[in-house]
Amino acid sequence: MAWTLYIFLMIWTVCRGEIAAKCSAAPNDRFDCAPEKVLNKEECEARGCCYISEDDGLATGQPACFFPPDYPNYKMIDFTETKFGYSANLIRTKHTFMPNDLMKLHMDVFFETPHRLRIIMKDTTQKRYEVPIETPKVNEKADPVQYDVQFTQESFSFSVSRKCNGNVLVNTNVAPFIFADQFIQMSTSLSSQYIYGLGEHLTSINLDLNWTKLTFWNRDLIPREDANLYGSHPFYLGFEKDGSAHGVFLLNSNAMDVILQPAPALTWRTIGGIVDMYFFMGPDPKTVIKQYQELIGFPFMPPYWALGFHLCRWGYNSSAMTREAVEKTMAAGIPLEVQWNDIDYMDAYRDFTYDPDRFGDLPEMVKEFHNKGMKYVAIMEPAIGLSSSPGSYPPYEDGLKRGVYVTNETGQPLMGKVWPGTTVFVDFTNPEAHKWWHDMFKAFHDKVPFDGAWIDMNEPANNVHGSLDGCPDNSLENPPYVPDVVGKELRDTTICASSYQNISSHYNLHNMYGLFEAIATHDALVKIRQKRPFVISRSNFPTLGRYAGHWTGDVDSTWKQLYYTIPAIVLCNMYGIPLVGADLCGFVGDASEELCVRWSQVGAFYPFMRNHNTKDAKSQEPYVFSKKSVDAIRKATLARYMLLPYMYTLFYKSHIFGETVVRAPFMEFPQDQNTWTVDRQFLWGEALLITPVVEQGKTAVTGYFPAGMWYSLVGGAGFESKGEWKTLPAALDTINLHIRGGYIIPAQEPAMTTTEMRKNGMKLLVALTKNGIAHGELYWDDGDSLDTYEKGDYTLITFSAQDNTLVSKVEKLEKEAENLKLNVVGLFGIADIPKEILINGAPALDFQYLQNEQHLKIQQLDLALGSEFEIKWSFSSASSSVKVEL
């Protein structure tokens, strides 16, 4: 008996030691084996997983139940080389804890381009939902390539590394791969703790890897840190330790969680579709973003007027109030490009109507704005109110006849509740809905000649959960795993996940709802106006930037939210949506005067600049504040307008080459690790650094200046930075702007509208390097016609400075630029007053030299930009052209 007990104890000790060994992963290297519910020790171990209790030192966010290294996984078989790359099958012999897991998968690996790798894994037995967006197709394997992909067979995993230096970008051997009907989970190591993207969330520019969960399920919600918001972008850019950068994109539109942990590691967790992953090799951040946009499509070219100042309010409840806002803004000397109306203008909050009592003269008001050189934008929503009696609301009845609405399980239009009361929801995946949407837009535009469309509430938002009739009790409404959505149910403040759209269930298409509406709206405006469309959408998904811009939603009027707008704007540019902005002064709550001034200064450098607030808050139009504050807002707005030719040129580069308009400092200076977390400053393109005040009561601001020459537009001499932080004065009327040495920025004399401004003289701001070199360019067209670049109807002029000479080269000229005149050149970095200045060989008539600022301003040039010019300056032998002030 004693001997038997001894043998038992020995076996028990060995087994316990083996269990301890396989469950000895470091806390940060543990991957959750109970994602769908909390398990106790017995339940966890029954899954074949490891368990640690809170009493054993479990930190916040760390999983109590986690995978052991020997957890059953897929095995790779039938590995074959193909004309595209590789293919293989993946088989599983043991089921996981998720129902309906797939026991056999097929994998295809595509070497699509030298810098883009694609890996697809899908069911071999039946077709599953795949995201219906266009991506480039390839016909053969790229060779050579910049990446290396390796696989393990027995316990399937793959790794992607950089061929030139061996940097491992992803490695999925850290946890088992699970693929069930309504649950897919894949984990990977990360190359560093610096990753960016995975929006739309309220985050700093670099994501927090301390057990952070990011949820993707588009939702109508006042932005906050712990919530899923208006958009879903399962794309991230990651740094490697040597400063190289790469990108990863999971093309999946289902509800999703992404879990970040300090290992560093990441877990993708989605509840449908397939695995369709892209890897972009960069090797620098700007190139990664270009490669990503090559896949999803380059952004649309906005009309020039879209870059002006826009004014809106929920609460302009009559045309008289709307006119008053325009008159007071202009009387304050603040340029106003576009006036908007929120849902106030509608008759009973119904699309394609206007209230006959309060807005009876809406068509006349819009024409008045046009006569002032302004534009007008109206809101449209995807929830269509029902007719109260036959014939009372033709848009609803026509849509019903044409079958354009989302349907419930019985095939009837799903009923929800939004602003008009009981509503139905347009199914924009239905081609007939696109035709109907166009017809409704056309009929309304024939009455009210609006210039652009604001599409809101298009997540879609719903004031009841699911529908007025509830939602069925099925697996689409109650999947085995629900991502960490606000409300804990997919139907919360939206429509039933099981409702049906033309190409699939809403369960699959929810995150794309706003994208499909944006496409329909974009196409309708093009056909109706025969000009560039202007569309601003709240809901967003990859490829939105091809059709529309975005604003960051119903943000609170707080200093914290002001700061968060900077990473939000930068990240949207990374997602290929450069026309983006946040509501100046915030939308929800009362903005203090100081906050509104500082927000207007930051917002003057958003690509999309709009002041908008809710009807329950105090007025925050620029003219309501003190003279000092109005002057400060005017000063910032005029600075924006002056620089619009440069911003427009950046949009051209975005449209044609996939560059970003606004970018974080790390995009330009990836080898300077100090920039990797900077998100209280941002750049326009390569050349203009904006350092705003985003904290209450501050009259100075600290900013980081990467190595190089920097010149202040506010005043003062340029300086050479070795990569350092500098504290700058920032009175209430000041936002610090610095031009980077080596660049030339085209500018123009501002005016109250861009229609008027485009007739004014141009300026060049020339910021020289230590060696006296700079370059830049100007893109110009009529600002409104379709496909001007594609048709060749544009002007492109390049500028370069070297050896005390500034020259222009007309790369291409069209008639719109024939009358453009260059009146002023400002040269930064001129150490002494020149002895002689020659304009095309003739002496300059008018110039000023500021010794303290090392700035030479040459005026009254009257040079036709359609003709090439040369400006030369020379010095006495005792002086030189560039002197650095430290």
UniProtKB/TrEMBL annotation:
Keywords: Disulfide bond, Glycoprotein, Glycosidase, Hydrolase, Lysosome, Membrane, Signal. It catalyses: Hydrolysis of terminal, non-reducing (1->4)-linked alpha-D-glucose residues with release of alpha-D-glucose. It is an enzyme of class 3 (hydrolase). Its EC number is 3.2.1.20. Residues 21-69 form the P-type domain. It is found in: Lysosome membrane. GO terms for cellular component: lysosomal membrane. The keyword Disulfide bond applies. The keyword Hydrolase applies. GO terms for molecular function: alpha-1,4-glucosidase activity; carbohydrate binding. GO terms for biological process: glycogen catabolic process; lysosome organization. It holds the Pfam family Gal_mutarotas_2. Residues 1-17 form the signal peptide. Belongs to the glycosyl hydrolase 31 family. Essential for the degradation of glycogen in lysosomes. Has highest activity on alpha-1,4-linked glycosidic linkages, but can also hydrolyze alpha-1,6-linked glucans. This is Lysosomal alpha-glucosidase.
